[in-house]
Amino acid sequence: MYSKQFLKCRSSILRSYRNYKAAIVPSTASGVDIKDTKEIAPHDHEILIKVETAGVNYSDLMMMNGSYHLRPQTPFIPGYEMAGSIHSVGKNVQKWKEGDRILCLKTSGTGAFAEFCIADEQSDVILPLSYTIDADLAPSIAAYGSAYLGMKRLAMERRGNSFLILTSRGTLGLATMDLAQNVFEGLVFGASDSENKLEFLRDANVLSTFNWTDGKLVKNVHKNTFGKGVDYVIDTVGGDLFQQGISCLKTGGHILSLGFSSGVIPQLDILKLHQYNASVTGIWLGGRDKKEIEESLTQVIQLFDQGFLKGLKVNKYPLDNINACLEDMKSPNFFGKAVLTMY
């Protein structure tokens, strides 16, 4: 008679060959189910990834409830950023082989929240991942890539620029702070909406922190910059805060919009830009071509390998607990990067 432990192990092995676990969105009006899904095999230019970790983003939440501009047909497996190793490759794949450790961004915006995922080497962003970057950190690379794309031209003009970084969720904001301080050698101020979040910013050794809920953000920024304002404002929040950000600039400053974690897309006041002789840029990593995304992310990976970057606060959840993860992310108190672990 076989022991329960043996039968459990045997069942797990058989399932790994025949099926794999995946998070399924049956409809945008329902939650997420964890189901056993049939085994998949890569086509000619595809690779099959054994997923170790997957990053959960607010765009994923919006896609699940049908409010995002990408609206896949239901049912679907959500998630677009993952790290893992290659399990098998299609017959025409030359660059990759079984066992390669990789980072992958799915251009379809779907497929990552599963133990296995198919990626197309011709359309998806697939990059080699060194062993200096652990699987928990890897899904944060995309946030760094967005920030790096937006900052590299501005910050390379000269060292010692001053930055005000507006963040309510932490992922993009903390990545931007890391880059501004440790790569672009900037003078960094941080702002958020609670004392708990400001403690995380202080741990990042910013010069000063501000709580914008007191209504004194503009006044406090100018007070801490001797009445001049900052060279750059990096806004990851959107809404009315974007307008306050413009007022925090020095004459000739620049505001960079990286996201709208508030859920409100800001309205651009052209007159205010004129008054400050200011300029504005919007960055969406997914809107760039594949080559540019790969170049940006490769540069970020190299900066991690060389020890310049520290990484983000990571909140880990097993795949089976994805609904708890999604509920936590809906809370205004959630801060940092949410990561699903598959094993």
Task: Give a description of the structure.
- Strand 8 (162-166), helix 4 (171-182) and strand 9 form a beta-alpha-beta unit.
- The chain has 10 helices and 15 strands.
- It has 343 residues and is α/β, with parallel strands linked by helices.
- It has 2 domains: 15-137 and 312-341, Medium-chain alcohol dehydrogenases, catalytic domain (Quinone Oxidoreductase, Chain A, domain 1), CATH 3.90.180.10; 146-286, 3-Layer(aba) Sandwich (Rossmann fold), CATH 3.40.50.
- Helix 3 (141-155) packs across helix 4 and helix 3 crosses helix 9 (290-305).
- Mean pLDDT is 90; it is low at 10-17.
Structure in a nutshell:
The chain has 343 residues and is α/β, with parallel strands linked by helices. Helices cover 31% and strands 26% of the residues.
Query: Judging by the overall fold, what is the CATH architecture of the largest domain?
Result: Alpha-Beta Complex
Shape: globular
**Which segments are poorly predicted (pLDDT under 50) over 5 or more consecutive residues?**
10-17
Report the CATH C-level class of the largest domain.
Alpha Beta
CATH topology of the largest domain: Quinone Oxidoreductase, Chain A, domain 1
Sheet having the most strands: 7 strands, mixed
Number of domains: 2
First-residue to last-residue Cα separation: 29 Å
